[in-house]
Amino acid sequence: MRRVLIGLLSAVVLPGSLAVVALWAAPLHAGSLFKKGTVTITQGGRSAQIAAEIAATPEARAQGLMHRAKFPESAGMLFVYKSSARREFWMKNTLVPLSIAFMSQDFKILEILHMVPPKGTDNPPSYYSKDPARYALEVNRGWFKRNGFGVGARVRLE
């Protein structure tokens, strides 16, 4: 909180620097939005673990992976909802190509879509789940295929 306060005070001292302060303070705020966990994915005798950021609040789900220039290969973001419904995701302000797995209430992967960041000022396309999903897991594009996982794989959050 002290670092954010100092940043805000510098905005008062240096007029016209609000954009810089917002960028400086964003990681402090964004980090507090997400909980951390480990996701284990299993299928056909194979398993893999990824470090997951958990987006369980409306604010965290809205922020998602926006404004990140890169995302570690062994990382993901798990979106958690209170109930199952058709889900819509888009790549607004998202710089990294992603794959998203939509999952049922029992953490079974229902489908995997590949999402591409918009070029320039293009409006980002929306990506919809075909079926109701309670969870969604975003990883670097192609991660599921590279690691041998597809529809039917099971996901466990630790």
How would you describe what is shown here?
The chain has 158 residues and is an alpha+beta fold. It has two domains: 1-33, no CATH class; 35-157, Protein of unknown function DUF192 (Jelly Rolls, Sandwich), CATH 2.60.120.1140. Helix content is 24%, strand content 39%. It has four helices and nine strands, in the order H-H-E-E-H-E-E-E-E-E-E-H-E. Helix 1 (2-13) runs antiparallel to helix 2. The two termini are 29 Å apart.
Question: Could you name the ranges where pLDDT drops below 50 across 5 or more consecutive residues?
Answer: 1-30
How much β-strand is present in the residues? 35-45%
Shape: globular
**Considering the protein shown, what is the CATH homologous superfamily of the largest domain?**
Protein of unknown function DUF192
The CATH topology of the largest domain comes to Jelly Rolls
Multimeric state: single chain
- Strand order in space, largest sheet: 6-5-8-3-2-1-9
- Named at the architecture level, the CATH assignment of the largest domain is Sandwich
Secondary structural class: alpha+beta
CATH class of the largest domain: Mainly Beta
